[in-house]
Amino acid sequence: MDSFFMTGEKKAVAPKADHKTEMARIVAVFEGKTNEVAKHGKSVCKKTAGLITHISGVTLPNGEFRESVKRGLPETSQWRIQEEDGSWSFGALEFDKNEIRFIPDLTPQPVHAFPATSLPFHLLKSSSACELVKDEHVAVYLYGALASCSWKMAGSGRKWSCNWIQAAQTVSQMRGLNEPYTLPLVEYESERQGCEDAELIQDMLNGLGWEIDFYPDMEETHKRAEKLVADHELNEPGPTPEWYADYITALTPANGLMARANRAAFTGRIPFKQWYSFWQLYNFDA
Length: 286
Prior knowledge:
The chain starts with a helix and ends in a 5-residue tail after the last helix. A hairpin with a 5-residue loop joins β6 (79-82) and β7. The protein is flat. It has helices at 3-7, 19-30, 119-125, 127-132, 136-148, 164-175, 182-187, 195-207, 218-233, 257-266, 272-281; strands spanning 35-40, 43-48, 51-59, 65-68, 70-71, 79-82, 88-96, 99-104, 150-153, 159-160, 210-214. The strands form three sheets. Strands 1-2-3-4 form a four-stranded antiparallel beta sheet, with no helix packed on it. It is an alpha+beta fold. α5 (136-148) crosses α8 (195-207). It contains eleven helices and eleven strands. The longest helix is centred in the C-terminal third of the chain and has 16 residues, at 218-233. 26% of the residues are buried.
């Protein structure tokens, strides 16, 4: 029997979404009415809709001032700075009127474990592949190769395919720089350099015994993208997640599928991993 009838206690009921209020918030963000800028000594903090979108300058425990600081993993509230050797350090931020302080957290970043029979496992065990992928041009191509198609082990019938996040986790772990997996997803700045790097990746994967199986049918995946958004739009709203601050400039009151996905993220209806699943499934040529 339901506990309500046994105890008389009322069950919590989630508040219903107020579409008019939500759209008013979205329009205010779109028109720049929620933007804020605050100075903390030499440091500057910018916000949109209460979310930190950019920080210029933090002070380290040794008194050193670093201009660039970026958000850490979407599952945490950490931030990160890049060291001279290209590796990344993570930590928390403390604010006062005179400065923004970066407080390092020496806890190692989480490592994703892949099955021993998988392509990522074989790549991570290959010292030559890990060395090659330290070149960001090569890393860009490897991420694209892993994320864009399905692979099979020649002569074994074994197959492997992944989502964009798993592809990014593979590449970031191979590089050994304590990178967050969001770097391959959105931050690698190198342009693809043409056939030379593409052939290098093909040789790398073929050398490990893997070859292309098939490319996805983008017409079919686009239908799945539409369903993913429609399903998450049915969720009750919640606070805007901090990770969406990095994407909030795409928020719009328009009605297209991309706009709906952004609204679902802004209103707390779609988690980060499903957010990136949407972009993997979305057919930009549709």
